[in-house]
Request: fold
Amino acid sequence: MSFRATFATAVRVLNQLRRDPRTLALLLFVPVLLVFLLEQLFSDRRMVFQQIGGPLLGLFPLIAMFLVTSITMLRERVSGTLERLMALPLAKLDILAGYAIAFGLVAALQAILVSVVAFGLLGLDTQGPPWAVVLLAVSNAILGMSLGLFVSAFARTEFQAIQFMPAFILPQILLCGLFTQRSQMAGWMRGLSDALPFTYAYDALHRATQLGLFDGRFVLDLTVTIGVTVLALTLGASTLRRRTG
Amino acid sequence: MIDYRPMAASPSIVVDGLRVRRGGVVVLDDLSLSVASGRVTGLLGPSGSGKTTLMRVIVGVQIVEAGSITVLGEPAGTPSLRSKVGYMTQNPAVYGDLTVRENLRYFARILDAAPDNVDEVLEMVAMAPFGDRVVNRLSGGQKARVSLATALVGNPELLVLDEPTVGLDPVLRRDLWKAFNELADSGKTLLVSSHVMDEADHCHDLLLLREGKLVATGTPASVRQQSGKQDLDEAFLALINEEVA
Ligand SMILES: Nc1ncnc2c1ncn2[C@@H]1O[C@H](COP(=O)(O)OP(=O)(O)O)[C@@H](O)[C@H]1O
Ligand SMILES: [Mg+2]
Reply:
């Protein structure tokens, strides 16, 4: 692995985003719009907004980065640039780390922007400090990136890659505890929920924002999130083949 | 072209007993050849004859079933070769959403080439006026030249160029061949593929490939002599018929 190649890749990915201002604008402003809608929707039930607002801030980047990464990596595979990179003095880890740095930065921007609006303008109030939301948002973004990278190997077209979002992400959002408390789920659903990474990402956010509780369970949540990220990155790296048939 | 220089002592590429299977079909079978250093070797053959596959083997991105491939004294695919071998893929492998210069800078950073090098290679492929143009806004031929420029970045010892002159106008084609010859004069080794026989006369040596097998090798003059034909197109046909007969 080389710092130079990693950095070059991060700059390249950021340049690609910069050259696509519409995507960048969507990435940065859609979460803001959604949080605003949420606040309006529950304007007479502030409790609900306070409850799900915080965790939601930290989940937006996960979803966005999942999509952006799976499409970008798919394009890299299909357009032949990945094959070209494999003939260069560049480790697979350089590509992955370059992506992680670039998308991590965008995720941080996204999280900061939506946090400023939510905490500053919309009166969102959480138990934990706002920066904890931003930090968790970035770590979730990298989780989303790793998952997107991994699933991109199973898509042949951009249509397929986009369909991974409802197939892969939506069930996790439904089961993570955001809509129904996990203790109220039927046994099998609870079991499934236990096995899904979103559950831990959400629980960490819930603890940080609602309970202000950085306890043992919080540490477990973080450990699982990071563990799954590393696993998905490793599996993703194994789908980047230097030699193909 | 008359070439007075002696053959270099040790060839840049030695292939021995190469067999490659793609999609279940043997596309290169028991192929043995060598490519002399400091010369322009033309890899000629009709479309589907295995030119791209052979080049992929040489740059180490193709899964090989059998045979030994030595490039600059080391087995093909050795990591240290990746900064010594420049590869231009048949379909332009560049980032369409970046500018020409952003693309080249990325390759230059990975290869640790001097920033000036980007302007040098742009000059060489006559793309200097388009440095700040986004690649997607270029014509097919211009895109191909950007892709060629990525192979030239970092001053590699060996250049493997897959149909670099296809789709270019005659003046540009002539200029590129001149540049290839100048590179060889300065000690570089070039392996250049084409499916157009007319290009053969720009090369010092020829490898004529048909259905994954070598039909003839040697200088253009010796290929003419072997076949008894002056026109290289006819020479190629005559040599194939000889094989069949
Ligand atoms: N990705 C692939 N999968 C399976 N077969 C392939 C693939 N690419 C090329 N081939 C086959 O390999 C043979 C050689 O192709 P190629 O090396 O691209 O020839 P050329 O470059 O001379 O046109 C052809 O029969 C082609 O159909
Ligand atoms: Mg080809």
In short: Residues 3-244 of chain A form one domain. The CA atoms of residues 141 and 207 of chain A lie 18 Å apart.
